[in-house]
Each structure stands twice: as structure tokens, then as C-alpha cells.
Amino acid sequence: MSKFGMNVKFTAKEGQRDALAQILLGAAAVAEGVPDCEKYIISVSDTEPDVIWVYEIWSNAEAHQASLDQEASKASIRQAMPLIAGVESCQIRPVGGKGL
Amino acid sequence: MSKFGMNVKFTAKEGQRDALAQILLGAAAVAEGVPDCEKYIISVSDTEPDVIWVYEIWSNAEAHQASLDQEASKASIRQAMPLIAGVESCQIRPVGGKGL
């Protein structure tokens, strides 16, 4: 079964980037306990001050979908929504490389 | 010192995605021997057939810059250039998460 990934660019409302990053880091902390979640990495941009990138790799697509149905995920999304101005989300399929 | 990342979207010329992916996987194999390169992950897109994503994390920005000056990197770039229709490159600064 193929691994499954998401490469997501969040644009926070002005001044809300760091608050949004904290919520996403909280979601990453929950992901520590989910074996099928292999990576959930939060990055900021030094060139786009409102932008946060989340890079997720899951052992399969079903595990990712199942995570969205968890109450902890729904709570994070509810917390995050008011801070978000935009989302661009790309589904990816990792094929190899270092650190995969 | 902050970690340094690049999130790069390559669009291959039509029919050239898999050939370009092989070149990038070769660059990732070289990166295996570079301790300051922590991740160099190649992904494709099932929704955009010509797209390849490369996700790089380096222990610092200087190590990334130094890698570009290596002959192996220059050779990969020369090989890849004729296969590439477009590149969108975002510099990122990883701040935390799972699998970082």
C-alpha cells in the first residue's frame, strides 16, 4: 500500500500566525501517539510572514482519513478555523528519498 | 541555529515526470552521505500528473547553500533542467512536530 502525504499551506489572519502554529503543534503532539502518522512537521516562512506549512506523511490514506474523524482533530480544526485566512492543500504520494 | 527547509514543486515537461523523479532520487541518494541534510523526500501527485514535490530539511542554511556548490549537485541540475517546465520554490523554517 502506498504511503499518503499532505503538503498544506495555511495563511493565517494578520497577527495570528504564532497562535495558529501553537494549535498545529498541539495537533502534532497528538499525532505522536498515532503510529500510522509518520510525519507531521510544522514550518513557518521567513519570506511570507502569515504563512505556515504542514507536511504530513501517513502509512496509508485510510489512516489519514480516520484521523480526521477523531474528536481531537475536530477540536483542533474548530480552534484553528477563526485564525485562518486561506488554505492550499496538495495531496502527495511519497516515492523515496532521505528521511522518509 | 535554526533548521532550514525547502518545499519545492517541480512541474515536469509532459511525459518526463518519472525521468525527473529518477534524477531527484539520485540526488537524494547523494544526500544520504551528507549529515547536515536531514530530509530530502521525493513525492508525486496523483491529481497533477506532471508534478513532483521535493521536501528538504537541512541542519542550517549554510549547509544547504554549500550543497549547491558541490559538483554532484551541479551535475543533477544539468541533467534535470531539460525535463523541467516550471519550479515553485518556498523557503521554510521548521519549528516542530512529529518526525522532524
Automatic annotation (TrEMBL), chains A, B:
Alphabetical list of InterPro entries matching this protein: ABM_dom (IPR007138), Dimeric_a/b-barrel (IPR011008)
Domain of life assignment: Bacteria
Pfam families: ABM
All copies of domain ABM, residue ranges: 4-92
PROSITE patterns in alphabetical order: ABM
Name assigned to this protein: ABM domain-containing protein
